[in-house]
């Protein structure tokens, strides 16, 4: 890459990190001469906030087709695993590579899933409220259960779910999983008993959602699904909030059959403070933080920057979610 023509790089939501030193130094080492800019687009349209860019870096900010056309970018990099904030189809049509960062937080998310499940099984929200109000009675939380009597189910069984499954097994859970993109043998080898979607819903005492957001999975968990779940069951969602019909979830918590929900993601983020799930006595809500550890922050930034540079050079590296875009003329 010629050092005489700087590669234009724009980070469109930099406030998620303390600075952009890792991105700047990594991309400079990978690409040579760069012109690095940070633009906090907030709620604005990227097309209005950014004049031109070769590479757009984003964490949560949306990148629609209009932003691609306005900036003339050739790479859009998401500092995440999911890329539902980017119009991938439009990018592919335009020959724009969209990249994510795989494998940077599998341990963190897997442990978060099991932590939420155990906290809800042991009645920690009820005990916390009870003691904060001056109580001191072990009966404040009803239906407390132990892992060895429970079945832990996974909707999609990728790397993060497999970490959680291993932790769950160590606590004594039976583990089942449904993933239409894996064979039964692959699921068994990864540590779970394969089941149909219907059996997953019917058999799980704890059901963890680990699927990406697609037209097929959006609001897949609605009233018709919740009505079939086991009495006293628990839902865990660390994937994407829009997998769940939140009104139906609220009804299932209020009227059964669910007794708890551990939610790291919501349909709208940050949520309106009027969202009743935030203060429901049977929920634990964390602020899309399952991925977080200091190590994960460094990994996502450094790896994400290296993947962005490789995609800019036209390399089909792990992390390019639309490799066909690299061949569009």
TrEMBL record:
Keywords: NAD, Oxidoreductase. GO terms for molecular function: oxidoreductase activity. Residues 34-322 form the D-isomer specific 2-hydroxyacid dehydrogenase catalytic domain. This is C-terminal binding protein. It comes from Halobellus litoreus. The keyword NAD applies. PANTHER family: D-ISOMER SPECIFIC 2-HYDROXYACID DEHYDROGENASE CATALYTIC DOMAIN-CONTAINING PROTEIN-RELATED, D-ISOMER SPECIFIC 2-HYDROXYACID DEHYDROGENASE FAMILY PROTEIN (AFU_ORTHOLOGUE AFUA_1G13630). It holds the Pfam family 2-Hacid_dh_C.
